[in-house]
Amino acid sequence: QSDDFVSSLKTDLFKSSGTFRVLVGVTGSVAALKLPFLVSELLQLPGVDVRVVTTEHAKHFYNPSDVSVKIYTDKDEWELWTQRSDPVLHIELRRWADLLIIAPLDANTLGKIANGICDNLLTCVVRAWDTSRPLLFCPAMNTAMWLHPITAQQVSGLKEFGYVEIPCIAKKLVCGDEGKGAMAEVSTIVSFVRQYLPKPVESSQKT
Length: 207
Ligand SMILES: CC(C)(CO)[C@@H](O)C(=O)NCCC(=O)N/C=C\S
What we know:
Layout: H1 2-13, E1 20-26, H2 35-42, E2 48-54, E3 71-72, H3 74-80, H4 89-96, E4 99-105, H5 107-114, H6 121-127, E5 135-139, H7 143-147, H8 149-160, E6 164-165, E7 169-172, E8 178-182, H9 186-194
Parallel strand pairs: 1-2, 1-4, 2-3, 4-5, 5-6
Antiparallel strand pairs: 7-8
Helix pairs in contact: 1-4, 2-9, 4-6, 5-8
The ligand CC(C)(CO)[C@@H](O)C(=O)NCCC(=O)N/C=C\S is lined by residues 29-31, 33-34, 140-142, 171, 173-175, 177, 181-183.
């Protein structure tokens, strides 16, 4: 199981350059219920290959059978690496991805990333991230959490690393609060990602 698992990653690494590899990180905000829709919309983009890395808490909010692409979990990291010669999943994933988008980014994972904590597969990918590659994040949390002063500090910290914020929006949240904290709309997220796709090469031959 593990070899085809990694070999598919490795083959992707050497796949024809036409493929733009998008890794979606999903965390424990209720906005994670949008994951199936986000993935299906991203797959509509030309030449895009999508994989997902989930945290344990995110699993409460979506059904994996509604997601048509591979979802990597913390368990996969430990099943894959049992001896020195085994590949390290978070390193294979940081090599594989051309772009990482964390949607939604919950308050907990925001805090971890802002401080370099890497205690699960997703935060290990982020901790090992090649900052010359785009990392986009979509904060989503209760309005009271969003308004706490530590949030602005941590969001600006991520931006100092060069990560790109896709700002949260004001909505009537599922808990009844009205205000900022809702994840950006999927259409907004997809249009952000679209900006990073390789430009189609103008054909030099005159037809
Ligand atoms: C879930 C969705 C997308 C429905 O429109 C929206 O409410 C949202 O993004 N909420 C995320 C904010 C959150 O995590 N609230 C947690 C407690 S209020």
